């Protein structure tokens, strides 16, 4: 990692996880394999900020630790990239195991416990809402096609939907880091 840490993908240690590395990596990983409209890629860092904002709408009483769960839900992608769901399914449990171990190390590094069922469902719901929004605004999906893959759209306030506009890499990285620090105290 740029921080100088060496992260073992098969046995990741929380001691080797740094938020600066996560923000740096996620700001440089393109969602939708880069197949999005706009002058910049839509990064996983931006997607994570969008999911966290949506999470605040669907769980308005969520505390900082719960909001961090939304923000960090795709954090393992800072080292493994954003693999599309059909490929993840084809790769199977090997990939899922690596991703799960990384997320466990990330949670431990920042003092977070694994989410309970209510929060886990809320994260998945927020992720689907974000994917639908991204699919129709950025990735060229028709509304009915996006609904088939991600479910019916749910209304979100303009301040949330405005997050689905691609930013330059440095801005995505800075905004991700700022939000993490605001939530982590």
UniProtKB/TrEMBL annotation:
It comes from Methylobacterium durans. It comes from the Bacteria. GO terms for molecular function: hydrolase activity. SUPFAM superfamilies: HD-domain/PDEase-like. This is Hydrolase. Keywords: Hydrolase.
